[in-house]
Amino acid sequence: MSEDDLSSGTILDCPGGASNFGLTVRADGGRCISVDPLYEIPPKDFEKLFDAEFPKLRAWASAQPNRFRFLQHDSASPWRHWRHGAEQFLADYERSASDERGDYVAASLPELPFEDGEFSLALSGFLPFSYTNRFDLDFHIAAVAELLRVCRGEVRLHPLNEITGQEYEHLEKLIAHLRETSLPFDRVISELQAT
Fold it and tell me: I need a labelling partner for 96 at 20 to 30 A (CA). Which of 1, 47, 69, 73 fits?
């Protein structure tokens, strides 16, 4: 994230999950709305859900050290960092339940409750392409179209692979669909891509 990203308008984090990303953006002077269907859950129940899911996340990522290279150097530190981030999120999520700022919105792709072009930047991490057993190509096309609808600027999807680390099997079809829209796009390879 650059200073320009923070100052250009409101950022959409969808899905936000138990991440402190939105809180961090706001602390740095930006505006961010995090969206997730789980935000219907009361804060205490969300905390219980996180506590139940965190060991599964840790086991899943630890089983893929070639994909999550940061685990190769210090296997404990990243987990402390992630847990601390989730604890920050939970405290902010609980605070937001009692105010009217709307930092956390219960909604899900491919239908978001926002106006056309409401956001300057849209980020979508780990939902697109990760759960191909739940979401088909039509869902992904509709989800990307919805992110494009609500964003007047750039849409960033990450990673472009399935939860197993393999490239999303319909990625080329999705790219072909995007080319038909005449919208510019760049594919950037990251450390979380399949190796």
Answer: 1
Q: What angle do CA 84, 68, 176 make, to 5 degrees?
A: 110
* Sign, Cα dihedral of 13, 79, 27, 189: negative
Determine, yes or no, domain membership for 98. yes
Residue 167 included in any domain: yes
How far is 77 from 75, CA to CA, in rounded Å? Answer: 6
Give per-residue pLDDT as tens, 134-185: 788 898 899 999 999 999 999 988 877 776 777 778 888 888 888 887 666 7
| Pair 122, 147: CB distance under 8 Å | yes
- The amino acid that residue 139 corresponds to is F
Could you count the other beta carbons within 10 Å of the beta carbon of residue 100? 5
Structural domain boundaries enclosing 30: 3-181
Give how many domains the chain has, as a whole number: 1
